[in-house]
Amino acid sequence: MSTNRDRLAFERPILELEAKLAALEAQPEKSAETLEELRRLRRELTETTRRIYSQLTPWETVQVARHDDRPRTTDYINLVFDEFVELHGDKAFGDDRAIRTGFAKIDQFKLMLVGQQKGRTLKERQECNYGCAHPEGYRKAVTKMKLAAKYGMPVVCFIDTPGAYPGVGAEERGQAQMIANGMFEMSRLPTPIICVVIGEGGSGGALGIGVGDRVAMLEHAYYSVISPEGCAGILWKSGAYAEQAAHALRLTSRDLARFGVIDDVIEEPLGGAHRDHHQMSARLKMYLLRTLRELTARPIEQLLAERYQKYRRMGVFLEQLPVAAAEG
């Protein structure tokens, strides 16, 4: 595991117990007392981890969602799907490596996979621009989704980005328009769409591939209109208030499920997805299979109508007549 884990201050009690366990397990010969101590430490580790992760603050959730060891899109491609054939390019400008697209197979289902990729090593991160896509990335995603609809294949989107790339070149090439076009095309795409926030779901960069019949989040992911640091910079004029901003944004899976912004929360392994990639992948696969069976059984006309109503229902607002009109 990477040293990034050391930066999660709230995990310190877990790390201390893990270190004690590792030291005892490394002993070549174990007495009865040592074996009993091992059992006790394992129980304490499980209880401590469960307690800490059941009480994460919004800011701690953001830290977990950004963990260097957290599974990325390419990890899930290898662990969840039986086959994957990548498709490149947007037929206009280039191939944005921050968004991966391709044909995939999971059990009996053939589908189009669209996933945001951050990279893990420095070289990969630079290639993927740290998960911040350019306009050509969103154009590529929409083009491949339309291809899927043409052949009657469902679409699965994995969301994991701090936000779309905000550079001058991206703006010159129509970043906002490409994100808006992606949302528009997904809203009426005549095929089932499943979106899953696997890590960070930041700003319009996430929404650009986030319109679907089912929108789910991993338990310790976050999904927000802006990053906590960006919100703090706007409201408090300082990134030092990111923790307060994270609390105010209501960006956790529990909050968003309560507000009806997402449909499902996928439980993570004890201690977060970064501790067990295989178990997290198995849970994600079960969710995808269950949802694919449900959605593919419905007529396309019904899916489109329900998708439209789903997004029309979001948000709470009040309407009130002007005082003069009400009195009249």
Task: Determine the number of helices (DSSP H or I, runs of at least 4 residues).
Answer: 15
Please write the string of helix (H) and strand (E) elements.
HHHHEEEHHEHHEHEEHHHEHHH
Q: Quickly give the structural class.
A: alpha/beta
Quaternary structure of the protein: single chain
Largest sheet: 8 strands, mixed
Helical amount: 40-55%
Q: Please identify, by name, the CATH architecture of the largest domain.
A: Alpha-Beta Complex
Low-confidence stretches: 1-6
Describe the global form: globular
Mean pLDDT: 92
CATH level 1 name of the largest domain = Alpha Beta
* Overall number of domains: 2
The rounded Rg comes to: 22 Å
CATH superfamily of the largest domain: 2-enoyl-CoA Hydratase, Chain A, domain 1
Distance between the termini: 70 Å
Overall number of strands: 8
CATH topology value of the largest domain: 2-enoyl-CoA Hydratase, Chain A, domain 1
β-strand amount: 5-15%
Task: Please give a structural write-up.
The longest helix has 22 residues, at 32-53. This protein folds into 2 domains: 9-55; 62-312, 2-enoyl-CoA Hydratase, Chain A, domain 1. By secondary structure, the protein is α/β, with parallel strands linked by helices. The model is unreliable at 1-6 (pLDDT under 50). Helix 1 runs antiparallel to helix 2 and helix 4 crosses helix 13 (277-296). Strands 1, 2, 3, 4, 5, 6, 7 and 8 form an 8-stranded mixed sheet that branches. It has 15 helices and 8 strands. It has helices at residues 12-25, 32-53, 58-65, 73-80, 122-128, 135-150, 168-172, 175-187, 203-207, 228-235, 242-249, 253-259, 277-296, 300-312, 323-327; strands spanning 83-87, 99-106, 109-116, 155-161, 193-202, 214-218, 222-224, 264-266. The N and C termini lie far apart (70 Å). A hairpin with a 2-residue loop joins strand 2 and strand 3. The chain is globular, with a radius of gyration of 22 Å.
